Amino acid sequence: MKIPKIITALFAISFLFACNSDDPNETPNDNYSDIYNLPSTPFNYSNPNFPETFTPYVFGFNNTPTDNPITNDGVTLGRVLFYDKNMSNNNTKSCASCHFQEFGFSDNVSKSDGFEGGSTFRNSMGFANAGFYSAENFFWDHRAATLEEQVLMPIQDSVEMGMNLEGLVEKFSELDYYNPLFENAFGSTNVTSDRISKALSQFVRSIYSYNTKYDKGIEITNDIFEDFPNFTAAENLGKDIFNGKLTPGAIASCVTCHLPNSIPLHFDQPIPDNVNQVIFSGAEPDNIGLDDNINVPDNGVGAFLGIESFYGHFKTPSLRNIEITGPYMHDGRFATLEEVVEHYSTGVLPHPYLSAHMKNGDGSPRHLDFTPEESAGLVAFLKTLTDYELIEDEKYSDPFIN
Fold it and tell me: Is the Cβ–Cβ distance between 200 and 91 less than 8 Å?
């Protein structure tokens, strides 16, 4: 007699749950913890603890537009979008498929794989401190006027992701797990390409790098021309080569392109406040003599602009995390930093539109002719720009459970 009562009770319970599961007003698992792992309180992206070396002058390099400030909820949405493979036509590629956190948000191959197996046209560069790229134009050829434009272009590329914006909006509007993220970031669940662009841009701009061996050294001295007490002899030698201290009368040095607005009138004078000692990306594209003619597959900025005198000019990327962002150059032609340094030492070619600071007084290509010790020192210095905290920081990592 007890068994029927138990069966009846179980049936009643199952019926109750069945009715509840059909309730249109119920929002089961509304935090979508089975989809992504996000903290109940968003990570702090909007107020990072910059060191004092990031001065008001340095913040003048900031390219954040007034209509898209970094917010914790906006970056959280951007982070999920960045890692979502639904971003591609066949759900196989995300932004992170070509920009890996462990490689400084670059790729470790010369060309990345697209959604159908094709190869991208250029090497994927790292994202660290993209928000401080004062030239504002993005991609190797500067074809995107802003970061907000840039983040949508790979999505629409026929090789990379193969989507169109109308299809993208329709697709993501049907993914319920974005409802709370868009609501928190923008005040409603409405999905638009503009909101996707802004959220992705916020995430990329939030990838700040300032926790390196170099940053600890510059905080101690506040002078790139002084020996850093936390550096080895080789690293300090490389730093002196990089900043031109060893060759004060030379036409140019590494800082000319990679630490713009950084040099006082004389290296032995005090560093003024209005200099940059922490942003290692160039202010304009350059031709560094990778080729000796214009009959090459990729002429960079010149091809985009249709101006021959800019042929062979490419964006000067940030050197932060350069140790882990190889292979190098727009086409990934150099596998190691040693090869990059050797290019500047002996390999600069007489391109017809070689940048002026890459030439000697007679117009010939400028070779720095490093000794083996100097080459090793310069490589050692470049490795001090690696931010190991950044490449392991959870707040920039893949949030998806599966």
Answer: no
